[in-house]
């Protein structure tokens, strides 16, 4: 049964990557600027939400995604302005810088649990915002860093809207594959820590070790999301990485389903699309978006993908329960 569940979870995660691959078709099948914008926003949203998803697999809710996005985005912007425009190098820079910051930070904050951990990661966002504003020579301060050169894709500048979207989705796919590989290789340890940390520790699992791995990986993935955002806007600005933006990323994960990568993708695509639809209703947009969240969470408390998966599992068990007596009767 455990192997069946593990195989099912792996297929759900692979399905999430497949959906992201399908987004690559949009730039070649459409010339609509709205579609370009929607796909770009969705890819960045998925990438940012993956950082939240990784920590939730360890039973921790982290609010630090915007700060790591800012570190990755600003690091890439500074490197690009200094002449480093190779896409692979910029991706490495935007992932490594926040990961290096997360390593010592994790040694401090991962000792905390529950609301204390949430509070410290929330405060870290505010501290980083102050640092950005107080270092104008490096970060541009309140004006940010403008005119960031586009990343080079196969030696060509990603200047056209279609190419920018391709690069953005490609960054998201790399992040998703990295997340998939890490969470499945360490799945037993992550699951045991999430379910019962004390029991896991008694069985020889070191929670601090795997939480540090998860925290650093989450920071790296969030940094890639920050780079994707800066590359799409050609600007690194403090307003792109506000503390409250994390609420959206958390909503993507919980609405889609925190148990699988597909849930993150579905939640991000749904909420970002509906947010664009509701924006045409001006003052009603926030209320409509909030109402959508309430309805989805009432109907599918485990997230859309999580709830559907549970329904299918129950149907399969019930179907087997009906077939088993028939098979035994035939044998008799």
Q: How far apart, in Å, are the first and last alpha carbons? A: 27 Å
Q: Which class do the helix and strand fractions yield?
A: mainly alpha
Whole-number count of domains:
1
Q: What is the alpha-carbon Rg in Å?
A: 21 Å
- The helix count comes to 15
Per DSSP E runs of 2 or more residues, the count of β-strands stands at 4
Which series of helices and strands comes N to C? HHHHHHHEEEHHHHEHHHH
Principal-axis shape: globular
Secondary structure blueprint with pairings:
Layout lengths: L1 H22 L2 H4 L3 H24 L8 H17 L5 H23 L4 H21 L1 H4 L5 E2 L5 E2 L2 E2 L3 H25 L1 H9 L1 H6 L4 H27 L1 E2 L9 H11 L4 H18 L6 H15 L4 H28 L1
Antiparallel strand pairs: 1-4, 2-3
Describe this structure as you would to a colleague.
This protein is mostly helical. It has one domain: ABC transporter involved in vitamin B12 uptake, BtuC. 77% of the residues lie in helices and 2% in strands. It has 15 helices and four strands. A two-stranded antiparallel sheet has the order 1-4. Strands 2-3 form a two-stranded antiparallel ribbon. Strand 2 and strand 3 form a beta hairpin.
């Amino acid at each position: 049964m455990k192997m069946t569940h593990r195989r099912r979870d792996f297929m759900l995660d692979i399905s999430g990557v497949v959906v992201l691959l399908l987004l690559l078709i949009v730039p070649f099948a459409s010339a609509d600027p709205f579609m370009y914008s929607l796909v770009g926003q969705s890819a960045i949203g998925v990438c940012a939400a993956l950082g939240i998803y990784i920590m939730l697999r360890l039973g921790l809710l982290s609010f630090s995604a915007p700060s790591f996005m800012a570190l990755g985005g600003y690091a890439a912007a500074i490197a690009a302005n200094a002449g480093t425009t190779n896409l692979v190098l910029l991706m490495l820079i935007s992932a490594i810088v926040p990961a290096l910051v997360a390593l010592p930070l994790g040694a401090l904050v991962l000792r905390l649990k529950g609301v204390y951990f949430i509070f410290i990661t929330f405060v870290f966002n505010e501290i980083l915002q102050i640092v950005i504003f107080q270092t104008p020579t490096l970060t541009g301060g309140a004006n940010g860093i403008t005119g960031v050169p586009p990343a080079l894709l196969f030696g060509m500048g990603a200047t056209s809207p279609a190419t920018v979207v391709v690069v953005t989705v490609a960054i998201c796919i790399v992040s998703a594959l990295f997340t998939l590989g890490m969470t499945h290789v360490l799945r037993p340890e992550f699951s045991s820590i999430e379910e019962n940390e004390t029991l896991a520790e008694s069985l020889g699992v070191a929670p601090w070790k795997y939480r540090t791995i998860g925290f650093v990986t989450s920071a790296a993935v969030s940094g890639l999301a920050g780079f994707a955002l800066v590359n799409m806007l050609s600007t690194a600005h403090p307003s792109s990485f506000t503390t409250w933006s994390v609420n959206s990323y958390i909503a993507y994960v919980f609405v889609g389903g925190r148990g699988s990568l597909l849930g993150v993708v579905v939640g991000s695509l749904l909420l970002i699309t509906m947010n664009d639809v509701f924006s045409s209703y001006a003052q009603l947009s926030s209320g409509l978006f909030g109402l959508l969240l309430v309805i989805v969470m009432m109907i599918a408390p485990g997230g859309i993908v999580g709830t559907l998966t549970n329904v299918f599992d129950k149907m399969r068990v019930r179907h087997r329960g009906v077939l088993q007596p028939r098979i035994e009767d035939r044998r008799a």
